[in-house]
Amino acid sequence: MTTLISRRRALAGAIFAMPALATVSTIARAELQHALEARLAELERRHGGRVGVAALNLSTGVRVGHRADERFLMCSTFKALASAMVLARVDKGVEKLDRRIGFSKEVLVYFSPVTETRVGGEGMSVAELCMATLTQSDNTAVNLLLESFGGPPALTEFVRSFGDELTRLDRFEPELNEHDGPDDLRDTTTPGAMMETLRKLIFGEVLSRPSRAQLAGWMVMNKTGDSRLRAGMPESWMIADKTGGNGNQHGNNNDTAVAWSPNRGAIVVATYCEIPTISADERNAVVAEVGRIVAELA
């Protein structure tokens, strides 16, 4: 219990501390950016496909990108946005985290490790559904949350309300993981747009202070990201992330995160990996290597 309380206090301190802009010369920034972006390009060349990355050190202002303005399927990375919208509704007084939502076996969809054990009875609270969504990537849980606030169009409207003109959600799980080629814009974002949206949700004024801490806290407890960005970053860092993926048919393995390095501020990063010619484990290794590269922004 003491460890959990200490971790929560550390997380709150990290979120609410205003990042002091570190003094880094323009030349040094440009050299670091160029070097890291060259490594990202080489990583993509080695494996084929597309590797989209956008990352920003909030303390130094140094950012890196590779295919940062190209569209990728979000897959389950949208779940951080869905949970954030729930918290925004709580802030407005139109939703309560302790409200219970009942559901039947008929609404269960593929990959629902938590909700499949809670069918019938009293259902689950909104907070429990958010927890299942962000820590286990439970698909039925996020569908129930989407239905609670108006579905995919409402989530798109939510991100538009604070300046994200690119991210869009069009379908529920699991259909949102399918696409018909590069001209299919459904359920897509760009690494740059997602990075900026995540920055606003965790560090901006979109959510209240308690809701920002809650969102980050759920993401810190994520159980699906150990082989992705987290695997490439130092063990001493505190990382809040949300993964996404759709198997080998389309070859998407994604991860979006805020990573706090001790005494060096926070890095916000969005990584979208689309390489159908290699295995899921190999794609995870690519995302982990992105983590190693962007960690050098600290």
TrEMBL record:
It is an enzyme of class 3 (hydrolase). Its EC number is 3.5.2.6. Keywords: Antibiotic resistance, Hydrolase, Plasmid, Signal. Residues 1-22 form the signal peptide. It holds the Pfam family Beta-lactamase2. SUPFAM superfamilies: beta-lactamase/transpeptidase-like (SSF56601). GO terms for molecular function: beta-lactamase activity. GO terms for biological process: beta-lactam antibiotic catabolic process; response to antibiotic. It comes from the Bacteria. It catalyses: a beta-lactam + H2O = a substituted beta-amino acid. Residues 52-271 form the Beta-lactamase class A catalytic domain. Belongs to the class-A beta-lactamase family. PANTHER family: BETA-LACTAMASE, BETA-LACTAMASE-TYPE TRANSPEPTIDASE FOLD CONTAINING PROTEIN. This is Beta-lactamase. It comes from Sinorhizobium meliloti (strain SM11).
